[in-house]
Amino acid sequence: MTDTLPPASEGEPLDQFLCFSVYAAGLAFNRVYKPLLDRFGITYPQYLALVALRGADGQTVSALGAKLHLESNTLTPLIKRLEAAGLVTRTRDKQDERVVRLALTNAGRGLTDEALGCIPAAVLEATGMRPEELQALNHKLASLGAALRSDGAASGGSGG
User: Fold this and answer.
1) Whether the Cβ atoms of residue 45 and residue 29 lie closer than 8 Å to each other
2) pLDDT per position as a tens digit, 147-160
3) Is 72 exposed, middle or buried (0-12, 13-18, 19+ CB in 10 A)?
4) What is the percent of the chain where pLDDT is above 90?
5) SS3 of the chain
């Protein structure tokens, strides 16, 4: 990648950068999600953690971190806040006490089920896209993210 702009075309130069478009879309998603999640008293990363735990209780902190692409120094405080709110429990693994397993409480499961009952539809409506369009876009972005993570690991992770 170079530090120079691609050949100029009409419009804003930043709009020519895929990374900026993804970043701007992420900010727009945050604006859509915030009022939806405020109703439940959780943040977007907390919502993701709850949804991931809803899919498989008993997963380890490291497995959840891998799913969410979060380092432990970011994930641990997030989990502690969910635990303090009574939404998640942390227990030491019986075979290996160094391993911490996570599970939703009944309150956490109820909140997650309620959120999943309304948030995806509200986000879909906000996008103005059809479900199959979003599914195709999601697949492409997931593939892009995987490729970038793979390339970053192979090249030492330096970015620009």
Assistant:
1) no
2) 998 975 555 444 44
3) exposed
4) 76
5) CCCCCCCCCCCCHHHHCHHHHHHHHHHHHHHHHHHHHHCCCCCHHHHHHHHHHHHCCCCEHHHHHHHHCCCHHHHHHHHHHHHHCCCEEEEECCCCCCCEEEEECHHHHHHHHHHHHHHHHHHHHHHCCCHHHHHHHHHHHHHHHHHHHHHHHHCCCCCC
Give the C-alpha separation, 103 to 57, whole Å.
5
What would the pLDDT profile of 34-56 be if each residue is shown by its tens digit? 999 999 999 999 999 999 999 88
What is the token pair recorded at 96? 């290996």
pTM of structure: 0.83
For residue 160, what pLDDT is reported?
44
